[in-house]
Amino acid sequence: MYDVKSMKAQEFIDDGEIRETLTYADAHKNDAAEIDRILQRARERKGLSHRDASVLLACEIPEKNREIEQLAEQIKKDFYGNRIVMFAPLYLSNYCINGCVYCPYHGKNKHITRKKLTQDEIRREVIALQDMGHKRLAIEAGEDPVNNPIEYILESIETIYSIKHKNGAIRRVNVNIAATTVENYRKLRDAGIGTYILFQETYHKESYEKLHPTGPKHDYAYHTEAMDRAMEGGIDDVGLGVLFGLELYRYEFAGILMHAEHLEAVHGVGPHTISVPRICPADDIDPTAFDNSISDDIFAKIVACIRIAVPYTGMIVSTRESQRTRERVLHLGISQISGGSRTSVGGYCETVRPEDTVQFDVSDQRTLDEVVHWLMDMDYIPSFCTACYREGRTGDRFMELCKSKQIQNCCLPNALMTLKEYLMDYASPETRAAGERLIAANMEDVSNPKARETLSGWLDKISQGERDFRF
User: The whole model's pTM is what?
Assistant: First the structure.
């Protein structure tokens, strides 16, 4: 039976509830009056239930679908303005004992070269990332208790935070590793991580078990309940995600919203981020083998409906997606993107993209500077800000500020200052000129006169060589 407050995976992600939700959505997908009711509720900016949001996703009325996109775009602006947070993944190790059939790291893959970075290699990778201008990383590692124990992850985090190269520093390390114990989550918290990220891959239990035939990840309940253990361990920023293409997308959509509702109901804090990857080519993986792939139109609608349903959450799209696709979904809800990414172990220090350790093919292969310039050409502010995490604005404190839209009082000036740092230290001359114009154009949007005066002074100090100011 469905119970949003249950601590059992099969009760807060109840198959029967999802199927009833999809049936309800099918029954109302052309019901203009019901869709209008849902849209009116959504305009209150307090989010939607998984059932109401599923009706919007199923909607077949063209003019209502245009309203859905317009509302998603406005909600994105209301909560996140025109800022886009930048990050990069850092792959530490591709050793893995799981049998995930959609991932080239699966234990039976004999084609892929196995590699684990030493701490010296991590230093070189981090310096390469700092020399691009990155300030925020998401570290990735396969599940292997021998090669990638928690001690290795913790040592790697310590190494990353310790590296100061020229004006570079990694100010936030997010962690995407396998489900683990409360004790290990406490260790990650004490190591000073930002967000703990774990993709569910699929919420359909039967499909989940078939897609993960061997290894610790086969345990659906242990994996699905990981965020509860993470929060019990003191990590109050967690990131959800599914891999679209493994199961029917409407099932996954309902499931991830139910997971968000569960976290809010039990812990008082919903997901800090939601990621929306789609399955794509990789070594030993043919995406056409999975018959639930989704079109670009459906993908865009999923992004819009998640933004409406969970207005406070950050939404992430990676370089799995092409420039064209990323451009389409930015205004519909995406607030974080990666840039200049490598999905291989040791990839940032290679002179060419190594093909023997990649987890998935990168569609958007532009440099970080090219991505930054592209964003600014569309009047977005590329933000390298990590201030909330470092000022203790995490978990319920962040959510309270975000839901009240007060977070923008900090976010805009912090975004402008971190962009200024990037322009001074890393940007090409063309990007720097465009960025200076963008900063000047956005200064008046800092509505508090005292904050604007402080910001102006700090921007001058950044021009003179000082770094790391934050509201």
Answer: 0.94
